[in-house]
Amino acid sequence: MITLVRRATALCVLGAALTACGTTASEVAPRPAPSAPTPSSSASRTPTPTLAPGPAGLTPVFEHGPRTDGTTRGEQDGTRDGKLIALTFDADMTADQGPRAASGERFDNPQLIAALRKLKVPATVFMTGRWAEEYPDEARSIGRDRQFEIANHSYSHYAYTDDCYGLPTVAEDDMRADLERAYTAFEKAGVPNPMPYFRFPGGCYDKAALKELSATGVTAVQWDVVSGDAFATDADAVTRQVLDGVRPGSVVVMHCTRSAAPVTEEVVRAVVPELRSRGYRFVKVSDLVGAANGRA
Q1: Is 184:34 a contact under the CB 8 Å cutoff?
Q2: What is the per-residue pLDDT across 136-170, written as a single tens digit (0 to 9) for each?
Q3: Degrees (nearest 5) of the Cα angle 20, 24, 228?
Q4: Whole-angstrom Cα distance, residue 4 to residue 23?
Q5: Alpha carbons 191 and 45: distance in angstroms, whole number
Q6: Separation of CA 240 from chain center
Q7: Do 248 and 69 meet the contact criterion of CB atoms below 8 Å apart?
Q8: Which of 65, 94, 213, 214 is most exposed by smallest CB count within 10 Å?
Q9: pTM
Q10: Residue 172 DSSP code
């Protein structure tokens, strides 16, 4: 495992690379995060698990699932789920990076998504609204694939606190609009049923941010394992860091941006079979939240 300083450095580098100077959010009609399937979706689909609000009604924060070697599914068969782990991938793009994308820089990573599909690994993609605007076909494809779920990573990828790895900040009064604008972008891209989960840019939040987002009904999702894939060039080092850090219930943060995380696909191809050999079962964040709520 790298030290906490190296972890902070990796996030700092990623934050600096994704820094942009632009408008954080346009005027959009407020709307809550989607917490249930739309009428056009399957009637048999169960409601998305979320956490109860925190103290004083603040947005709840989820970091990892139960630290158990298995959860009983039912007394009728005595089966167990095994050690659960969620791989999550941040699809980052900021508001003014369109010219960079037009010049050939790739903020997507279709080969990574293809690898996850081939390996049959469920995953949660935390997507910025700007990414969905730039790659609507990919956003729609991921969102319509039952192997994946799309969650909210803000529209702008600007920080929701001051002093967050050099990122520009969203004004407190604009935080909810920035989050909601991402859901609007998902809808325009044709993403069905995005999840009511939100990942703070840079992982930075404070009480004021949790209060501002409380009316949206989202559950904030953090992580307990930093993969270190941001701008890494040594896939073996990232692989070791993930394997050394995971525990039952872990949420691993990785990236789905080819220019910012070029070795992530290689890491996934190495990590997945090894963790399966150790008895881990890959699930989505929603499964871990459900397990935390006692759903087995």
Answers
A1: no
A2: 999 999 999 999 999 999 999 999 999 998 889 99
A3: 50
A4: 32
A5: 17
A6: 21
A7: yes
A8: 214
A9: 0.84
A10: G
In angstroms, the CA 281 to CA 275 distance is 8
Per residue in 82-134, pLDDT (tens digit) is: 799 999 999 999 877 888 989 999 999 999 999 999 999 999 999 999 999 99
Q: Where are the beta strands (DSSP E) in 103-153?
A: 123-127, 148-152
- DSSP assigned state of 69: S
| Calpha distance 113→118 (Å, rounded) | 9
DSSP string, 258-295: TTT-TTHHHHHHHHHHHHHHTTEEE--HHHHHHHHTT-
Helix (H) or strand (E) holding 221: strand 219-221
The span from the CA of 279 to the CA of 274, in Å, is 9
In angstroms, the CA 260 to CA 105 distance is 10
Q: Which of 25, 24, 61 is nearest to 169 (CA)?
A: 24
